[in-house]
Amino acid sequence: MSTEPQSPDGASTAPRQRGLIMVTVILASAMYVGDLSLVAIAIPHMQGAFSATPDEISWVATAFVLGSAAMIVTTGWLAARVGARRLFLVSIAGFATLSIMAAQATTLQEEILFRLGMGAVGAPIQPLCQMIVMNAYPREQHGRALATWSLGIMVLPILLLPASGFIIDMFGWSSVFYMTLPFGTLAFFGAIAFVPRTQPEASRSLDWLSLSLLITLFALLQFVLSRGGRLDWFDSSLIVGALAISALCVYVLVLHLATARAPLVPPELFRNRNFSCGLAATFIFGATNMTIIILLPLMQRNQLGYPVEFVGIIMAVRLLGSMLGQYIVSMLISRVDPRHLIVAGTLCAGTSTWIMAGWSMDVAPLQILLPIILHGISGGSTWVCLNSLTASTLDARLRSHGIPIYFLTFNVGFSFGVAAILTYWSNSTQANYSRLREYVNLFNRALQAPLSGGGKDGVDPAATAQIADEITRQASMIAYNNTFVVVTVASLLVIPLAYLLKDPGWRRRR
User: Fold this and answer.
1) pTM metric for this prediction
2) What gap in Å lies between CA 314 and CA 319, rounded to an integer?
3) DSSP per-residue string spanning 173-190
4) What does the pLDDT look like over 440-463, one tens digit per residue?
5) Which of 174, 176, 345, 384 has fewest C-beta within 10 Å?
6) Which of 137-141, 213-217, 380-384 has the lowest average pLDDT?
7) CATH number at residue 374
8) Strand, helix or coil at 248?
């Protein structure tokens, strides 16, 4: 094993070692990504176990993303201070430890706290994996290497998701936190054996003011999105105050980044057109494409009544589509303009969510599979292209800053998207219920007769409750349809941003 720092173009890394490094980073990323997918399957069971509402249980996912968002920007500084490999090992070990603690949580508050810690400790894993891959391979191989890495990540979750439903039924929701631990263990020892050491930069300082402002800003905006509907938005002084403080944080942060000697994020990053436009597209992608992995299990379990085993299989099919999309892109990315591939993937996503907007309570399982496969293909293909293009024109010295910001943007988009979409769904459900109640009288004896057997002369409370429950189910389903329409329209905003990106010219280097 080499113990020297890697050269930026990967020239010092032998082909055999590159393969072993690739396997290691795939295992580490699979642990991280697999956790998100498996927890999404367990969320309906956790909702029942903790007696939580949909917006409350969504914090199990959003707390993880917020923890990641808070710490991911420090990846470059931490890697410089302690060394990339050492940070990689600490992140893997810490993530695995907190997974065990999350499995033992007895209250929703404990679970959210442990998920916040998992996000914070595991935040460096993805950007470090990408930096390790880009440092191990020559620049002209970056597109295919990143596609291979993204493709490999999907294999393990696809294998685990179909089994997750059966495991949850047998051992409870906590069992999903143990399923990714073997991959983390293999990645830990693989990093020790194959990932080259890097020399720490003890003199590098951290911009604590910028970090504090970012954490405050994200926490306040998340609060506004998740609680705005309950507090009547701008009629609440709490919401107005949070938005005012957020605006002040943005102003101070921009001013500080422009004038500080050693800012948390070098301003020259945002003068790179691919990086800036790629971040905007990635935010929208995270807010629309990834939100579906939270929305679908809740709808399938609570509205359609599918068993958890079937929900796991359906989500595995989505990941299989994602894997197929990544494989297709890995073959085409050096032959076709990546911007065209982003547009094709976005149109595919819009088509799939538009089909979902037409689902009813009677939708057949086979009718669900096609749009879910399409959605997976779109997510896999768009992710690889955005990931590659955003960092394609960054200098090697800026990667340690730029790549964490890229993943931060994706995570923040995911977090804000979940909060905004579930808030919209909840408000839409209430509005639909009120509208349907205008046409249905809960105490109508003609409606109650089939439910009460026709033998009661007065109002049957049980029949009244059944009618109210059915109205709620129909109102919720209409809300899901409306939500999918909003996701469809929002996802198409990626298309104009795609053509603002520069073609990296990988085709000319073949």
Assistant:
1) 0.73
2) 9
3) GGGGGGTTHHHHHHHHHH
4) 777 766 666 666 665 555 566 777
5) 174
6) 137-141
7) 1.20.1250.20
8) helix
